[in-house]
Amino acid sequence: MTALGSRVWPGVGPSVLAVPLGATEQHGPHLPLDTDTTIAAELCRRLAGRVPDVLVAPALPYGSSGEHAGFPGTLSIGRSALEHVLVELVRSADHFAGVVLVNGHGGNLAVLRRAVRTLREEGRRVLAWSPSGRADDTHAGRTETSVLLRLRPADVRLEAAEPGVTTPLPDLLDRLVAGGVRAVSPNGVLGDPAGASAEEGEAVLAAWADALAAAVHDWLGR
Radius of gyration (Cα) for the chain, nearest Å? Predict the structure, then answer.
């Protein structure tokens, strides 16, 4: 049993706490709003299966998603609120051996870096990790569609899947920052979901889980 929420307090020892950090935001016309949270939670679950003494916290399903505000269903708590939540959450976890923040949403990255810097300056043991991917397939494209086909196939509307903009993200940043995702991709997709499959999704998840476990082992000095 690796889920923190199912424990009673006498059963919580000096474990490492893995916190899934996600978002609730549009993922094109074919993927669910909680895609990033689902991915972060699955990676934490796999981490707990590979690294001893890891407990998985309940997922944080809201992040900094202002760039997706032009689409219905997106909920964002903004950068300052997210930073405050992360700092206070890790401060409250002093009885754990350390905290790993497993992030599933690219829009959280800048906030995550600031929060981790603050926490480390306070002497707290914290690691932040995010999956890597192709610069032309960053949101609701082939990678995320494949992963969701592996994890929650009933919630993927393949009949509604359509390509978005495939320009590499660094070349879109100025327009994206100025006008949000809707200004660069009317359907909210940054990539092309064509060719997605559950088999590819499992391969992606396995590679991400390997990288996450390796990062945690290095961090723990094991």
Answer: 17
Amino acid at 166: T
Confidence of residue 1 (pLDDT cuts 50, 70, 90): low
Report the C-alpha gap between 132 and 84 in whole angstroms: 25
For the chain, the structural domain boundaries read 4-220
Kindly report, residue by residue over 153-187, the tens digit of the pLDDT.
Answer: 999 999 999 999 999 999 998 999 899 999 999 99
Interatomic CA distance for residues 121 and 221, integer angstroms: 20
- Domain 4-220 bears CATH identifier 3.40.50.10310: yes
pLDDT digits (tens, 9 = 90+) for 31-44: 999 999 999 999 99
Rounded to the nearest 5°, which phi and psi values hold at 68? -105, 10
**H-assigned helices in the chain:** 35-50, 78-91, 109-121, 142-151, 169-179, 181-184, 198-220
pTM of the model: 0.97
Mean pLDDT across the stretch 63-91? Answer: 97
Q: Do residues 103 and 43 touch, judged by C-beta distance below 8 A?
A: no
Closest CA to 183 of 103, 90, 69, 107: 69
- Give the pair of three-digit tokens for residue 179: 């006008």
For residues 134-153, average pLDDT: 97
Q: What is the C-alpha separation between 216 and 56, in angstroms, rounded?
A: 14
